[in-house]
Amino acid sequence: MAERSCHSLISLFEFAPSFPRPSEIVVATALWAVFHIWLMLPVEHNDPINAKILAISEDKIEGFVREPFEEIARRSGVSVATVMKRIAAMLRAGTVRRVRQTLLATNLADGALVAWKVAPEKIEAAFDYMSQCDPFSGHVVLRSTDSVTPGSEYKLWTTLKVPRGFSLQHHGELLAEKVSAEHFRLMPAKGIFTLGVGHVRRKTIEPGSKADTPATMAPVHAAELSELEWKVLLALKREFTPEEIAPSPWSARAAEADLAPDEFFRIAESLNSRKVIGRFSTFLEHVKPSAGGVRVTRFNALFHWAVPPGREIETGGEVGRHHILTHCYWREAGPEFRNVNIMAVAHGTDKALMLAHKEAIDRHLAACGIPVSYTNVFWGGRSEIKPSEISPEIYRHWLREMEAQVA
């Protein structure tokens, strides 16, 4: 941001002496005023106006919306012009790391949470490879536990997605060979109870705060798409640049897909009805501090519970109703993790408060009469967060290259 500001100032000052006509002076003055206002816009997530915007834009715009910035404005009570200026400014500053239409990728590609057992001297290199060289690995996190527990030797965790028709196991084997992993455990989601971010609005949530009713499990199902639907989907999911934060943001994407806007909207809304569209979201940089040194979160906790077979849906509903959680899944972790089958994620700035939230959930499960044979917390450390690629065409190209490298 500083470099861009310096270059812009230099170009304005270099231009200033050369315009003799009054109209040019007016234009230059207006440009300087706009530039100055842009520089002065607050870009931290805790600015009161930004917080109002982010409380909606992080995870409250569900499905496909034709005018997402207008919807954010309507629901936040902030004018649409201010919404667009603030989101663009936060994106430029790095406070918001991406703005994009999310997909329910679990219904578009085979996916899993993967725990990797890698020798300590090789784990940083493995992290780098997963985060930088594999577009199909999304969240890449180094995790630790407060004591030696079942599975604590699995310190590298990733999310992985491969398009339908390809093998998660084979992909894992290729990566394991590449990074010299001793073992890996694939944990596909069998059901989803909670999925959303909303870090700003979760900052003030008290331990034990929960919905009036249990969370409903969304089952994972396969959606088959036509070539045209994939074309629209790939145009939809591309991240927005600051310059694209503008009215009617989908018009350019429709042109990119060689479609009239009405046809683009028709296909997008059809995909939405088939449960393959997630939310329109602004994703905060919640791992690293902002340029001003402000952190959105400091602790990333992955909670584990092992409950009796047959009670996973009931337990997931009771866990997933707690407001602090950004994710809650039914996953089978196997004997390496004492047969954990319910997992959830929470973020915060205070570790003791994170543990208090976990204890409140534990007490609630006990009050519901749900026996828990094992529970644990895996704390996130170094991490890189990026959306997983799901394009079949890109995957085929990647797979050819990888298989040639390890042959």
Throw out a few tags for this protein.
single chain, 407 residues, alpha+beta, Alpha-Beta Plaits, ten-stranded antiparallel sheet, three-stranded antiparallel sheet, 41% helix
Written description of the protein model:
This protein has 407 residues and is α+β, with helices and mostly antiparallel strands. The chain folds into two domains: 1-40; 46-407, Alpha-Beta Plaits. The chain is 41% helix and 22% strand. The chain has helices at 2-15, 22-40, 48-57, 68-76, 80-93, 123-133, 168-179, 199-202, 227-237, 250-256, 261-273, 312-320, 351-367, 392-406, and strands at residues 61-62, 96-103, 109-117, 137-144, 156-163, 183-187, 189-195, 218-219, 277-284, 299-306, 325-331, 342-348, 374-384. A ten-stranded antiparallel beta sheet has the order 6-3-5-4-13-10-12-11-7-8. A three-stranded antiparallel beta sheet has the order 1-9-2. The protein is globular, with a radius of gyration of 23 Å. It starts with a helix and ends with a helix.
Major sheet, described briefly? 10 strands, antiparallel
Strand order across the biggest sheet?
6-3-5-4-13-10-12-11-7-8
* Radius of gyration over all CA atoms, rounded: 23 Å
Into which percentage range does the β-strand content fall?
Answer: 15-25%
Give the averaged pLDDT, no decimals: 87
CATH topology of the largest domain: Alpha-Beta Plaits
What's the number of extended β-strand segments? Answer: 13
Global outline: globular
Structural class category:
alpha+beta
Helix segment tally = 14
- How many structural domains does the protein architecture include? 2
